[in-house]
Amino acid sequence: MNELGFPIISLVTFFPIFGVLILMFIDKDAKDTLRGTAMVFAMIEFFISLPLLFSFQNGTADMQFVERYTWIKSAGLSYFVGLDGISIWIIILTTFLTPLCVLCSWTYIEKRVKEFMICLLLLETAMLGALVSLDLILFYVFWELMLVPMYFLIGVWGGDNKIYAAVKFFIYTAAGSVFMLLSIFFLYYLNHKTTGVYTFDLLELYKLNIPVSIQFWLCIAFFISFAIKVPMFPLHTWLPDAHVQAPTAGSVILAGVLLKMGAYGFMRFAIPLFPYASHKFTPVIAVLAVIGIIYGALVAMVQPDMKKLVAYSSVSHLGYVMLGIFAFNMQGVEGGLYQMLNHGISTGALFLIVGMLYERRHTRMIKDFGGIAKVMPIYATFFMIATLSSIAVPGTNGFVGEFMILVGAFRTFPIFAVLATSGAVLGALYMLWMYQRVMFQPLDKEENKVLKDLNAREIVTLLPLAILVFVMGFFPGYFLRKMDASCEHFLKTYQQQVAMYEQGLEESGTARLTAVLEECNLKSTLLD
Amino acid sequence: MLEFVVPALNLKAIMPQLLLALTALTVLLVDVFAGKEGKTSLGSLSLVGVAFALIALFMTRGSFESAYAGMLMADGFGFFITLIVCCVTFLTILASMNYERICPDIKAGEYYCLLLFAALGMSFMGNAGNLIMVFVALETMSISIYVLAGFKRDNLKSIESALKYFLLGAFASGFLLFGFALVYGASGTLDIVKLGIFFTAHPETLHHPMVLGGIALMTVGFGFKIAMFPFHMWTPDVYEGAPTVITGFMATGVKAAAFAALIRVFFVGFGALQVDWTAIMWLAALLTMTIGNLVAISQTNIKRMLAYSSIAHAGYILIAFVVGTDLARSAVLFYLLGYAFANIGAFAIVSAMGKKGEEYSKLSDFCGVGFKYPFLGLMMTVFLFSMAGIPPAAGFMGKLFIFSEAIKSGYIWLAVFGVINSVISLYYYLGVVVRMYFQEPEREISIITPAGTMIAALSLAAFGVLQMGMFPSYIWNLARESAKMIM
């Protein structure tokens, strides 16, 4: 079955469901029991996901811990899961962030605690499922399933404009993904036509040679679906709404994992399935990524609302990720993957931090604050660490990711890399400016003078993130080594495929030319 | 002396239907002779009857014969339709036993008797091998339903519903019958299988005006029953006025039966003409789903909304009808069953939303229901997500089979319009969820605590929906096997 001789991936994926079942039988007024149970399950989940990391083989690009069972035999559907260097860290990030989300909601969520925790755990299963699926339909099932708990998280526990944000989030994402579904069907049908086998197995479909004209259409469908999720400019408009309305835990998950799904989708599905079309679309994606970086940063700068500012900074950061991936060299791709993790940690921390302030003051407007550092010194420290990580100061994780992306991008498209660098400058500007306006300046508001500093629970929530910022900043090697083999394989197959398609096109072009020439010859001989 | 040979009675071929009919008659008798106490057991009696019919049905599984001189086809296709009908009837009866307390009008022997006769008609429609049989079964079903729609005797809307359905239904039946007559005139037979043989043997008659006219009139007749555009106008009014459980019964059972007859008559009888009706049905599928979905968005009454949604679902099924391969017909069967579970469940919940003499069927009445009545809210969410095609529910798998088959057969645009429609439909399905969970109640409503039967009905329907969504293998293989076995 797999290396451990034990269906570890299924256990990790579905373990939160056990938690859901237990939670269902707990009285809904026993709020602390509910929180405690959810926390215990989230922690156990994290610990049982660690063996994945420790028994992960660094040297191979093959799928590991693979499990495969038939789902519907006649239709070629199977339950096929596994992971490789591309997904391993995002999986760990997911199981790592969920306990923090439970912790940060401890007092933030007072209403309907039971349903909240159930949604959170369900969401965890859906996200993990999407990350380990190697069957396209299985992936799609989890992909859509992610929407449902998130929709409830925003809609039930969200802010004033929650309904608009929740419905927009759901419909935007679903609208993008249905075309991906059709595209999947088309691949399925194409595969049957060429090989005679009905299958949704991703690894089989990788091998398929798709005619170029069709490839573009299929690729567009996948691209749009993932680009909405990333989100890439100009498909990003759902994101600020969703983030601002969502409760803190929702924002953390949204920023930490859900957005990564888009970039992950590009690397796992869209690019390997449609290498030639991806190759041709690279300039478009790169331009959009650069626009995203600069536009996101500029819009973030003028936001009066701290949470919205962080939300727009996500648009900017994810622009970097996309630029890195589409640079198609080792530094860019690994940097992109690394930046995905960084963003999960730094932006996750920022959302937690903003949420903690909101819990105290019930406002997120920058102008309502000032001089907070004087009353909340511990808070100020964590805030500073997250800010520095977000603006990629050397020594923090953000620096490693951004640096690698820019190096990678510079090798492929120097002009875009230069433009993207301006985004880094802008990033420093808006983050530090916000920090200055919130934390420094005179403490002139009466309400702010009595603010309590972080309590033990909140420190416990933020501490792991703060430590990781430095660990990932100083020892990126440990993290990157696990990605190496898969990224190399990703690039190698991509380049081979593109070369093959180009050669194929050339040959068919030559063949057509020869045919025309022959016809001309024939005609001329006839005329003679 | 003239010798009279008693024709062999092939009871095995009609066992499930026979049991349904016997139960209906027993219910009628018990109603007359039993006292007040006996009347309360009528529902349970009917339940037992349907359960036996289901058992009998599974015992005849795999039979592939024509009985009663070709009048009846005991084949796989009929088997699956009868399966859908029995499930639908079973759930409807369970829901009715709770609905009795909200709408005392239906507390009568005739109610269950008519329900069972309607089910009998539906089942025979799926099994009919002769156009006359199709018509007789259709009328058995329709007349029972006309009465059931008007069962709330002192409610104006219910009467309007019954009258409207009856008048328009009578016209539709007329069209259908006239179509049969024209086809008979052209071919000299009413036997569906023989029609198919005749048209293959005499392709020159295919485009005779009488045949084409007959097919056009039949399309009108069947189109009315499945609520196909442009014959869908009656649906919202009738669905709104009828007793809610009956609405669920109509939206699922009648639709399944009518689709069954449509598929059998068109594919077996007029298979040779497929090229000709494909173009028309292509357009009809597109318009049916688009109009159903678009109009559903602006509804304020949940029964009307679900009525338009049922029109949209007819559109999705028509996609598979247009595609017309073996697998597409299996997809129709699968979709019909999944849709039946979700829709019956949804209507059952709407029917549970009320207290004696008052029903809450406005969309705004659903505000806050999700947290006030957690079980009903959760169930409704499951059913709505299934209808919207969100995994892991039956609706998703159904759409997966239909759309993948459409793509495979080259109907890419139809599939594209289909998924666009799915997204449009999300808006109004989510709208109900938004009201149930995200909004505060607009007015205090108190409903009668749902009886055990209602909880059983909802649990069974939800089980069906999730089972077909997560482990569809069994039902899908059953549907494939059934669709192949069509005579």
List the helices and strands and how they pair.
The complex is a heterodimer of chains A (528) and B (487).
Chain A: H1 8-24, H2 31-54, E1 64-72, E2 77-83, H3 88-104, H4 113-132, H5 136-145, H6 147-157, H7 162-195, H8 202-206, H9 212-229, H10 238-245, H11 248-273, H12 275-301, H13 306-325, H14 330-361, H15 372-375, H16 377-390, H17 397-412, H18 414-439, H19 446-449, H20 456-474, H21 476-527
Chain B: H1 15-33, H2 36-40, H3 42-59, E1 65-67, E2 72-74, H4 76-99, H5 109-127, H6 131-149, H7 156-187, H8 192-201, H9 209-226, H10 234-241, H11 244-269, H12 274-297, H13 302-323, H14 326-352, E3 354-355, E4 358-359, H15 369-372, H16 374-388, H17 394-408, H18 412-438, H19 452-470, H20 473-484
Antiparallel strand pairs in B: 1-2, 3-4
Overview of this structure, please?
The complex is a heterodimer of chains A (528) and B (487). Chain A has a domain at 310-489. In chain A, 77% of the residues lie in helices and 3% in strands. Chain A is built from 21 helices and two strands. A two-stranded antiparallel sheet of chain A has the order 1-2. In chain A, a hairpin with a 4-residue loop joins strand 1 (64-72) and strand 2 (77-83). In chain A, helix 3 packs antiparallel against helix 20 (456-474). The mean pLDDT of chain A is 86. The longest helix of chain B has 32 residues, at 156-187. Chain B has 487 residues and is mainly alpha-helical. The radius of gyration of chain B is 22 Å and the shape is globular. Chain B has one domain (11-484). The chains are: A mainly alpha (528), B mainly alpha (487). The A-B interface holds A 70-75, 112, 115, 137, 140-141, 144-145, 147-148, 151-152, 155-156, 162-163, 166-167, 170-171, 174-175, 178-179, 181-182, 185-186, 188-189, 192 and B 371, 385, 390-392, 396, 400-401, 403-404, 407-408, 412, 415-416, 419-420, 422-423, 426-427, 430, 433-434, 437-439, 471-473, 476-477, 480.
Main sheet attributes: strand count, strand direction, barrel closure of chain A: 2 strands, antiparallel
Described by the principal axes of the CA atoms, the overall outline of chain A is globular
Helix content of chain A: over 70%
SSE order of chain B? HHHEEHHHHHHHHHHHEEHHHHHH
* Helical fraction of chain B: over 70%
Arithmetic mean of pLDDT of chain B: 88
Structural class of chain A: mainly alpha
The best one-word shape of chain B is globular
Distance from N terminus to C terminus of chain B (CA atoms, Å) equals: 38 Å
**pLDDT averaged residue by residue of chain A:** 86
| Structural Rg of chain B | 22 Å
Largest beta sheet: strand ordering of chain B: 1-2
Strand content of chain A: under 5%
What is the element string of chain A, with H for helices and E for strands? HHEEHHHHHHHHHHHHHHHHHHH
Q: Whole-Å distance between the termini of chain A?
A: 72 Å
Which regions of chain B contain 5 or more consecutive residues with pLDDT less than 50? none
**Quaternary class:** heterodimer
| Total helical segments of chain A | 21
The strand order across the widest sheet of chain A is 1-2
Given the helix and strand composition of chain B, which structural class is it?
Answer: mainly alpha
